[in-house]
Design a protein that fits this description.
Elements (H helix, E strand, L loop, with lengths): L2 H15 L9 H9 L5 H10 L4 H9 L5 H10 L3 H10 L1 E4 L18 E4 H7 L2 H10 L2 H7 L5 H8 L6 H9 L5 H8 L8 H9 L5 H8 L4 H9 L5 H15 L4
């Protein structure tokens, strides 16, 4: 082999061994990678995770024919709501949360049957790393599903999502089927516990640790204390604290 040809072979092998720096690609190079039909889904998956907030990149990914359903579900749950309509129109796919819950869908082209992308099933097929990323960046649908994960780190990542709303926090604080770690995290967040509805939800939730709920009893109005005193779903220590506080307030000492 001629020296020049030998070096070409060596350089070619070296390039194949270099890691692909997706995060620092130029927009043109990134688009070429996405639109290349030979790009494996593992690379497309990494792009989706890194550029989850870039609408232009996500739309290019959606157009990619070799994008897996799992990655497509990740995009549907991290991107803005309009992307679901874009997916429905581009891939002839209807994004749904379950077999019985169909989302809004556009008209189906004649001769084609719209396929349902069940994101709940897709999440079940995701790796733990994908679930964590989705929990941290996903939309409301994803948060509502992942908060129930048995993995502590996945469920807790939902609470670190900057898109989470106080309404969701209140709903989670009421849920007795969530892990104690999630409830404790809500109860120790100073911003969330400024809201009376969140406090009430925590105190009335049988899953809330006594050490978290007891300090909030003093902040409840009389009407809520009366209900709490008679509740059989909360610990005895919480009922006793409610009863004592009612007596103190009646005597003008609370």
């Amino acid at each position: 082999m001629e020296p020049q040809s030998k070096w070409k072979v060596i350089l070619s092998r070296f390039r194949r061994q270099l890691p692909l720096d997706i995060e620092h690609c130029s927009p043109i190079a990134l688009r070429n990678i996405i639109l290349n039909v030979s790009t494996p889904d593992s690379i497309l998956e990494r792009i989706a995770e890194i550029y989850y907030d870039n609408d232009e990149v996500l739309r290019d990914l959606i157009r990619c024919p070799n994008l897996s359903e799992t990655t497509l579900a990740f995009i549907a749950l991290t991107g803005p709501e309009e992307l679901k309509s874009f997916i429905a129109g581009t891939r002839v796919v209807e994004v749904v949360l379950g077999d019985e819950n169909a989302g809004a869908a556009g008209p189906v082209p004649e001769g084609e049957k719209k396929k349902k992308l069940n994101v709940q099933q897709a999440i079940q097929r995701m790796t733990p790393a994908q679930k964590i990323k989705l929990a941290l960046a996903g939309a409301k649908d994803a948060r509502g599903l992942l908060i129930r994960e048995s993995s502590k780190i996945i469920a807790m990542s939902v609470l670190a999502n900057p898109r989470i709303t106080l309404g969701e926090v209140e709903f989670f604080a009421k849920s007795s089927n969530l892990s104690e770690d999630v409830i404790r995290k809500i109860g120790t967040n100073a911003e969330w516990t400024r809201k009376p509805a969140v406090i009430s939800a925590l105190v009335n939730n049988p899953k809330t640790p006594v050490g978290v709920s007891l300090p909030f009893v003093n902040r409840l109005p009389d009407r809520d204390l009366g209900i709490l005193e008679k509740s059989r779903s909360v610990p005895e220590a919480v009922r006793t604290a409610s009863r004592n506080l009612i007596i103190k307030r009646k005597l003008g000492k609370g």
